[in-house]
Amino acid sequence: MSLSVLEVGDMNIHCFTVGPFLEHTYIVSDPESKEAIVIDPGGENEKILKYLKEKELHLKGIYSTHGHIDHVAGAYELHQLTQIPYRLNVKDKFLLDELPTISAYFGFSDIKIPVIHSTIEEGETIELGKQKINVIATPGHTPGGLCYFTEGNILVGDTLFQGSIGRTDLPGGNHEELLQSIKTKLLTLDDKLTVFCGHGPKTTIGREKEFNPFLIKGHSRFL
Fold first, then answer.
1. Would you say 174 and 141 are in contact if contact means Cβ atoms under 8 Å apart?
2. Which residues pair with 194 in a beta bridge?
């Protein structure tokens, strides 16, 4: 399934929902410079390449918010097809190393381990033309979890969902750390900020402050 292009601030955001986990792969692009990045390549790369060609976009980078299989399954092939570097926080490399075992467990054809060409850290800025995307570290769902923040919107992977938060029962997960990341890194942002999640519908910071049962102040699950 492919969602429509969303014009958010001066950026365009295009979402493909791919794979058995219904993971969202995003193409973020600057309409003026035609520069673009892919965030969370979950597979079905033919859709990405078709969109880039149709919109005459120049791919500058391939990124993941974290290292779980559904957010990296297409990374190796997409790099091979485009020769564009792939970046992930190195703290999640152990999850990439487990990809053959995990793909076999789910009955997938063997998913090749992507090479992290360079780690990506909080405080870095990705430039698309004159536009900037800021990198925020939000560990908890995984040790190396990241969010990508630009004017008016933030792409959060599996850190935060509409009415929920990322699971922390998988290797490297930490519930308290995830809540602290959300509290100190996300809930301090503008209430009107649009939140693009790794699965499910988009939301806003304000909505999650008010309705998310994990984040309502005074709730036992909120730090």
1. no
2. 153, 204
CA atoms within 13 A on the CB side of 167: 5
Q: Where do runs of H (alpha helix) occur along 88-189?
A: 93-97, 99-105, 175-181
| 177 within a domain of the structure (yes/no) | yes
Q: Are 205 and 190 in contact (CB under 8 A)?
A: yes
- Give the model confidence (pLDDT) of 170-206 as tens digits: 999 999 999 999 999 999 999 999 999 999 999 999 9
Q: Is 223 part of any domain?
A: no
Beta strand residue intervals within the chain, DSSP E: 6-8, 11-18, 23-29, 35-39, 58-63, 86-87, 125-128, 131-137, 146-150, 153-157, 160-161, 164-165, 194-197, 203-204
Angle formed at CA 40 by CA 34 and CA 45, multiple of 5 degrees: 70
3-state class (DSSP) for residue 180: helix
H/E element holding 77? helix 75-82
Q: pLDDT tens digits for 122-149? A: 999 999 999 999 999 999 999 999 999 9
Domain membership flag for residue 222: no
